[in-house]
């Protein structure tokens, strides 16, 4: 699995992006302001991780980790805004769809921001564990 961490991270970003587009374009769930911010940090991962996976470029980890961490933080905040009663008043969505609205609420826990958070965490863990194994290989590749 450590040899294929870039491919696995790419597949997770592809599924997350595809799911996001399916929910907005097919199911016609209008994205709120925080959903758009999460998309801004997820969508580029499809291109960046896909290219890195094809080329076997482990150096991409340092470049995409900020996208993963920031996107995950936005997802965590968005999930909290939906599930913690007082958080919606901290930074209210004043235009368009309210950010505390739940289109999906499976089992009272699983919402769209939680699914995005899980995707960001999975990508982050795959990149972190995969790059820890290949640190020496990156240096060897640069010297060659």
How are the SSEs placed, and which strands pair?
Blueprint: H1 5-26, H2 33-55, H3 61-83, H4 112-133, H5 135-143
Helix pairs in contact: 1-2, 1-4, 2-3, 3-4
Tell me what the structure shows:
- The chain is mainly alpha-helical and 144 residues long.
- Helices cover 69% and strands 0% of the residues.
- The chain contains 5 helices and no strands.
- The protein has helices at residues 5-26, 33-55, 61-83, 112-133, 135-143.
- The chain is elongated and about 45 Å long.
- The two termini are 25 Å apart.
- Mean pLDDT is 82; it is low at 135-140.
Nutshell version of this structure?
The protein is mostly helical and 144 residues long. 69% of the residues lie in helices and 0% in strands.
Tags for this entry?
single chain, mainly alpha
Q: Considering DSSP H and I runs of 4 or more, what fraction of the residues is helical? A: 55-70%
What profile does the largest beta sheet have? none
Which blocks of ≥5 consecutive residues have pLDDT under 50?
Answer: 135-140
Shape: elongated
Provide the succession of SSEs: HHHHH
Termini gap: 25 Å
Number of helices: 5
Structural category is: mainly alpha
Mean pLDDT: 82
Portion of residues in beta strands equals under 5%
Count the strands? 0
